[in-house]
User: Which sequence fits this backbone?
C-alpha cells in the first residue's frame, strides 16, 4: 500500500540554473543597490522576468500524491473493472476446445454457434435473430463461424456436411457453398476475399470467394490437426497451430511443401494465435492443457522474445493496440480472462466470473470490449480497454454500445 503523506516536488516549473544562482547569491551582502538594479534590468531583458524574484521551488501548483506520481510513470497498473458489462445466456453451446463458435463483426454484431444453430446479436440495437439452423444428426454441431472483414457475410461450418456455407446476415440468405471434400473444418480466418480453413485431417483449404467456385484455389499440407489459424495484419503471412507446433506460411506460396518457419515451441495443441498489430513480425501463441504457456516470438526466424506461465489452458489471445496489452482466455484450471502488460508480460488483472472453461474470446471492432464464450452456457462482455484520449495509439472502428441491462439471452 502506498502512503500519500509524502510531498513530491513538482519539477515542471523548476529551473536548475536560476535556483543555483539564487542559492549562491543568498549570502552575498556586498552588492550595491545600483548593481542590484542593473542586474534586475538585464535579467528582465534576457529571461523575461526578474531573477531575484524567481523561486527555488515553485509550490503554487497543487502537489501530486505519490500514487498519482507513480501512475504517471507507469509504475502502477491501471484499474480494470472487475465485473462484466453484460452477460448473455448461450444454451447448448458446444463444450469443445477445438471449436471457434464466436466472432464479432465490424458492424457490432456477435455471431454465436449454439449446437446446430447460429444466432446473431447486435450490440447497438439489442436485436437477436436466428440466422441458420441445420438438421440435427448424431454428434453433429457447428464447429466454427467467421465474419468476412467489413461485410455482413458470415462463414459457417457444420460437422455433418461437406460444405462451408457463406451467409448474408442482413438478407438472411445463403449466398455461396464451398466444398470441403469431407474434411472437418475447426478453424477459419479471412484475408480479404480469401477464406482459409484448417481441418482435422491436417490440410489448410484456401477459397477465393470472388471466383464463385466451390473448390479450393489452393491447399496447404500442414500435416497435423490445424486448430489455430491467423493471417498477419498485412496479409503476407499465415500462422497455423497444431499439436506442439506453430508454422508460418507465405501468401505467395500457399501450396509449398514446407513452411517458412516451423517452430516446435509448445508442449500441446496450439489454438491461441495472435499477430501484434504494431510489430508485423511479432507473434503471440498459447498452448493447451499440457503447456499452459504464452510465448512471444519473431515469426521470421523463430526466436523467442519472452514467455509467461499462465497455469491454465490457453484458448485465445487478443492484442490491444491502444493500451499495448494482451488478453488471454483460459480453460482448465482457471476459467478466466487474464490481462498482461507488454513487453514484460506482468499480470495486470484476472477477470473471473465463469464456472466452466472459456472456449474462445473475441475483441470488439472498436477494440474496447472483449466477449468470452464459456462452457457454462454464458457469454460475458468486458470493457477491458475504455477509450483514452490521452493515448496516442490509433483507434480502429466504430464505437460499441454497451449501455444496456445486465442479462439477456441469445435465443
Assistant:
Amino acid at each position: 500500500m502506498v502512503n500519500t503523506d509524502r510531498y513530491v516536488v513538482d519539477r515542471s516549473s523548476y529551473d536548475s540554473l536560476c535556483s543555483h544562482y539564487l542559492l549562491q547569491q543568498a549570502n552575498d551582502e556586498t552588492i550595491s543597490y545600483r548593481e542590484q538594479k542593473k542586474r534586475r534590468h538585464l535579467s528582465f531583458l534576457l529571461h523575461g522576468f526578474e531573477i531575484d524574484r524567481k523561486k527555488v521551488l515553485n509550490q503554487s501548483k497543487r502537489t501530486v500524491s505519490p500514487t498519482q506520481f507513480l501512475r504517471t510513470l507507469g509504475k502502477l497498473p491501471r484499474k480494470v473493472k472487475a465485473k462484466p458489462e453484460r452477460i448473455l445466456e448461450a444454451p447448448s453451446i458446444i463444450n469443445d476446445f477445438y471449436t471457434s463458435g464466436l466472432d464479432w463483426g465490424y458492424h457490432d454484431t456477435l455471431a454465436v454457434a449454439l449446437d446446430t444453430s447460429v444466432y446473431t446479436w447486435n450490440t447497438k440495437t439489442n436485436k437477436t435473430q436466428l440466422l441458420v439452423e441445420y438438421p440435427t444428426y448424431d454428434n453433429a454441431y457447428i464447429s466454427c463461424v467467421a465474419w468476412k472483414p467489413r461485410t455482413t457475410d458470415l462463414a459457417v461450418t457444420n460437422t455433418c456436411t461437406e460444405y462451408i456455407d457463406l451467409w448474408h446476415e442482413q438478407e438472411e440468405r445463403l449466398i455461396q457453398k464451398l466444398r470441403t471434400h469431407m474434411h472437418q473444418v475447426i478453424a477459419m480466418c479471412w484475408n480479404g476475399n480469401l477464406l482459409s480453413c484448417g481441418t482435422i485431417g491436417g490440410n489448410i483449404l484456401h477459397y477465393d470467394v470472388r471466383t464463385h467456385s466451390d473448390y479450393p484455389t489452393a491447399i496447404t499440407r500442414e500435416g497435423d490437426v490445424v486448430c489455430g489459424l491467423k493471417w498477419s495484419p498485412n496479409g503476407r503471412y499465415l500462422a497455423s497451430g497444431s499439436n506442439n507446433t506453430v508454422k508460418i506460411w507465405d501468401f505467395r506460396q500457399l501450396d509449398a511443401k514446407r513452411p517458412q518457419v516451423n517452430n516446435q515451441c509448445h508442449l500441446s495443441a496450439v489454438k491461441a494465435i495472435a499477430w501484434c498489430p504494431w510489430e508485423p513480425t511479432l507473434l503471440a501463441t498459447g498452448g493447451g492443457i499440457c503447456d499452459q504457456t504464452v510465448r512471444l516470438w519473431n515469426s521470421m526466424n523463430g526466436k523467442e522474445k519472452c514467455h509467461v506461465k499462465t497455469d491454465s489452458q490457453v484458448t485465445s489471445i487478443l492484442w490491444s493496440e491502444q493500451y499495448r496489452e494482451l488478453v488471454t482466455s483460459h480453460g482448465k484450471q482457471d476459467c478466466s480472462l487474464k490481462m498482461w502488460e507488454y513487453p514484460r508480460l506482468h499480470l495486470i488483472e484476472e477477470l473471473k466470473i465463469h464456472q466452466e472453461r472459456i472456449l474462445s474470446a473475441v475483441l470488439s471492432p472498436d477494440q474496447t470490449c472483449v466477449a468470452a464464450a464459456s462452457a457454462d452456457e454464458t457469454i460475458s462482455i468486458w470493457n477491458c480497454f475504455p477509450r483514452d484520449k490521452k493515448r496516442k495509439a490509433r483507434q480502429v472502428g466504430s464505437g460499441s454500445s454497451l449501455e444496456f441491462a445486465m442479462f439477456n439471452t441469445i435465443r
